[in-house]
Amino acid sequence: MDLQARIKAGIRDVPDFPKDGILFKDISTLLLQPALANAILDGLAAQYRDVGIDAIAGIESRGFLFGNALALRLEKPFVLIRKAGKLPAEKITRSYELEYGVAAIEMHRDAVQPGQRVLVHDDLLATGGSAEAAALLLQDAGAHVAGFSFLVELGFLAGRQRLAPIQTDIRSLAAY
């Protein structure tokens, strides 16, 4: 079975979460399978080993799971993109719209240097709002978005189209 099929088989579908009509793709079940989690990490590392990135930014919280491991595997710095109010030092902030309101993410001001090529990683590409906000946050700090990396993409929500004006290198290991 190829990696995409293994990922899809390993994800738990949770109907009506977080609200009625949503079919939530729960990746926590992937973490219960060390061999599959390692295969996912190997797949991510193979995609980005020779791309020329300087750092990897993970979006809280599930983007930390494989994003940090990928950064370690590729021997690159890992940049935390966190929900507002969670970082202790000087930070920069970006707000973005959700289906049900507004959210904000933050990054330490000194987490990236101007001109660095940073890969944005998260577990899921849905509408693209949080990934777009993370990319704009990195650009606010003077970094260049080298690409977007996701475990899973929900293509019917058009997140890829939202991110394409920022960077067309958008990769996912499994797509629905």
Question: In a nutshell, what does this entry contain?
Answer:
With 176 residues, the protein is of the alpha/beta class.
Enumerate the strands of the largest sheet in spatial order, edge to edge or round the barrel.
Answer: 5-6-4-3-7-8-9
Largest pleated sheet: 7 strands, mixed
Our measurement of the CA-to-CA distance between the termini, rounded to an integer number of angstroms, reads 17 Å
Instruction: Estimate what percentage of residues fall within beta strands.
Output: 25-35%
Provide a count of the helices.
5
Helix/strand order, N-terminal first: HEEHEHEEEEHEHE
**What do the pLDDT scores average to?**
96
Helix/sheet category: alpha/beta
What integer value in Å does the Rg equal?
Answer: 16 Å
Strand runs, count: 9
| Share of residues in helices | 25-40%
Shape descriptor reads globular
Description:
The protein has 176 residues and is of the alpha/beta class. Helices cover 30% and strands 34% of the residues. The chain has five helices and nine strands; from the N terminus they run αββαβαββββαβαβ. The strands form two sheets. A seven-stranded mixed β-sheet has the order 5-6-4-3-7-8-9, with helices on both faces. β8 (144-153), α5 (159-163) and β9 (170-175) form a beta-alpha-beta unit. α1 packs across α2 (34-48) and α2 (34-48) crosses α3 (62-74). The longest helix is centred in the first third of the chain and has 15 residues, at 34-48. The radius of gyration is 16 Å and the shape is globular.
